[in-house]
Specification:
10 helices; single chain; 2 domains; mainly alpha
Amino acid sequence: MNKEFKDSIPTDSEVILGILNNSESVLKRLYVAYFPMVLQLIINNNGTPDDAKDIYQEAIIILYNKIKAGDFELSSKLKTFIYSVCRRLWLKRLSQMSRYGGDIRDFHDHFQVDEDVDKQNDLDVQFSKMESALQLLGEPCKTIMEDFYIHNLSMQDICDRFGYTNADNAKTQKYKCLQRLKKLFFQQK
């Protein structure tokens, strides 16, 4: 694993596709990506690094189970969703331990923390639409998207696999596939 891949933060679509396709590398990158944010939240609110690890693990399991169940829809950034889940889990834990003083200091005030369960259900609908759009995408687009975003193949590898004349042609095809995926996503009701 090269350093650039190891240190990169996966995109939201990479995480969702990675979980759907059982990609260990995407899960590992996800674990590393947002933990510092959660650690800061927990430490600023009467927690320890071990508490932060536990809460983060629980949040990733919740995300994983929702995606795998097919009832997850993302309408905010994944970072915001994870922060929101961790915040709720930590508030619950503080309440159970009677350490909750009635207020929690957020690490980032600009995060929109969604406390409304109905809104979360709306997020789940968006994910179902994305999953459907991926299924409708067809070949070779679906495989190109998976090869690039999940399996982290280079454009040259994709070029060789599909017989494109050069990597730029493969890149153009990937762009067209991405546009088609967006169109399929937004056409759904």
